[in-house]
Amino acid sequence: MPVTNIHYHDLIRRDADVLWHPYAAAPVPIAPYAVKSASGTRLKLHDGRELIDGMSSWWAVIHGYNQPRLNAAMTAQLQDMAHVMFGGLTHEPAVLLAEKLLAITPPGLAKVFFSDSGSVAVEIGLKMALQYWVSRGLPEKKRLLSLRQGYHGDTFGAMSVCDPVNGMHYLFSDLVMPQIFAEAPRIAFSGSWDESAGDEIAALIETHHHELAAVILEPVVQGAGGMRFYHPAYLKKVRELCDRFDVLLLADEIATGFGRTGELFACNHARITPDILCLGKALTGGYMSFAATLCQDFISETIAHGDPGVLMHGPTFMANPLACSVALASIDLLEESNWRNSISNIEGWLRTGLEPCRTLPAVRDVRVLGAIGVVETRDLVAVEKVQEILVANGVWLRPFAHLCYTMPPFIASEDEIKQITAAIYSALA
Ligand SMILES: *Cc1c(COP(=O)(O)O)cnc(C)c1O
To answer: Which residue spans of the chain are classified as CATH 3.90.1150.10?
Structure first.
């Protein structure tokens, strides 16, 4: 039970006095909505209103809020230990979760490094790639090739591989490591593949392979950098190019992992295994900030045989037992659910519900893949105004730039998806 019960308007005012919000000024210019509690697909606001969460709290809450099995897993773990350092110690939740992740991710991945957030998992992946080449005696292979419209997190290494424009590289121009960028993949997920669509990245890899540590990309779905769905053949092509030119492939599945795109992992659409894989967001069903970086054995072995023989990274809260336990329970829930069916239902409902948006003058494109529905607008979305209409229609979404999009919890019903898509239509109309 909360010890205080601050009045709604007081809470908003006191928030403005002391808090930063994501990608915002402080004080935040648009007052946030205050949430009192959340259950199932619903956010309950302080003022009593209820909203369907069409965002799954940024891809994470796939099973819904206040989920009994996830609550039970965390409560049970709490009785044993909330946390213990991972240097020199180990515990059952970490071992079981690592084994589980290796069992469900693309074949060939063999080692798991746990960390606290997606951005950190990307930093660790980049460090693995860079240290691998140092260990192989090829330290000149230290640059990264990334895709325009990509997003990989907000820390400095991750920022360097985000889209240079969306990622605002100009702000820190001489501090962000200069990387190499390929055009965003141009053939849509369900478009017809044309070999020439891989020519540009092929030329970049061929030209730069002697200085390239890795290619980093979000497989199939480019998330926060533009909500684009691209053809799996592109991924296959990049895998082949990386093999041919001895460049590592790092797949960032922080947004796409755990079923969101209709496959358990987006790499499965192309049946490829990356050398390094980053997971986060839905890993704990949205209960804890937690992430993982997986790699193939040849990477860990090469680093072990190099100098200094260890991977130089070790977060204080590495492999936090509460997070490991709830992640295990979340994956169990997913496996026991008929998730393929749920996602394919949601995909169908989103297609039907969003299709009418195509006729709106404000709309440039409508696209749906798995449990992700995107409406791209011609002009920048007036976030405050659009959000007001969405909230008035009982729906929580967080549009940005030219995008009004939804990735609802997998438990969302047909009526709830209808309510979300109808709210998007009203707001954009
Ligand atoms: C959200 C996201 C990240 C960053 O994760 P955080 O937990 O916010 O640090 C990295 N990569 C992708 C693809 C993401 O969607």
So the answer is: 33-66+338-428
**72-336: what CATH class?**
alpha beta
* pLDDT of 3 higher than 50: no
For tokens 């954009």, the residue is 428
How big is the chain by its Cα radius of gyration, in Å?
22
Q: Is 425 a catalytic residue?
A: no
With respect to CATH, is domain 33-66+338-428 assigned 3.90.1150.10?
yes
What is the C-alpha separation between 296 and 308, in angstroms, rounded? 19
The whole-angstrom separation of Cα 327 and Cα 321 is 10
40: left (phi over 0), alpha (psi -120 to 50) or beta: left
Name the strand (E) or helix (H) holding 279: strand 276-279
Amino acid 319: pLDDT: 98
CA dist 429 and 386 (Å) reads 10
Do you find a cis peptide bond into 27, omega within 30 degrees of 0? yes
Q: Are 38 and 66 in contact (CB under 8 A)?
A: yes
**Distance of alpha carbon 374 from alpha carbon 424, whole angstroms:** 10
**d(Cα 250, Cα 273) in Å, to the nearest integer?**
10
Active site residue 281: yes
CA of 254 to the centre of ligand 1 (A): 6
Q: Which strands, in side-by-side order, build the sheet including 372-377?
A: 363-369, 372-377, 403-406
Q: Please report, as a single letter, which amino acid is at residue 403.
A: L
CA 3 to ligand 1 center in whole angstroms: 33
**Is the dihedral angle over the CA atoms 262, 263, 267, 268 positive or is it negative?**
negative
**Please, where in the chain does CATH 3.40.640.10 lie?**
72-336
What is the band of 4 on the pLDDT scale with cuts at 50, 70, 90?
low
Q: Residue 293: name the closest of 266, 323, 318 by CA.
A: 318
**pLDDT value of position 30:** 87
pTM (two decimals): 0.97
CA distance 224 to 292: 19
Which helix (H) or strand (E) element contains residue 286? none
Give the span between the Cα atoms of 132 and 187, in whole angstroms.
Answer: 32
C-alpha atoms less than 13 angstroms from C-alpha of 345 in its C-beta half-sphere: 16
For 156-167, b where at least 16 C-beta lie within 10 A, e where not — what string?
ebbbbbbbbebb
135, 303 contact by CB (below 8 A): yes
Measured from CB, residues less than 6 Å from any atom of ligand 1 are 117-119, 122, 151-153, 218, 223-224, 252, 254-255, 280-281
How many residues make up the chain in this entry?
Answer: 429
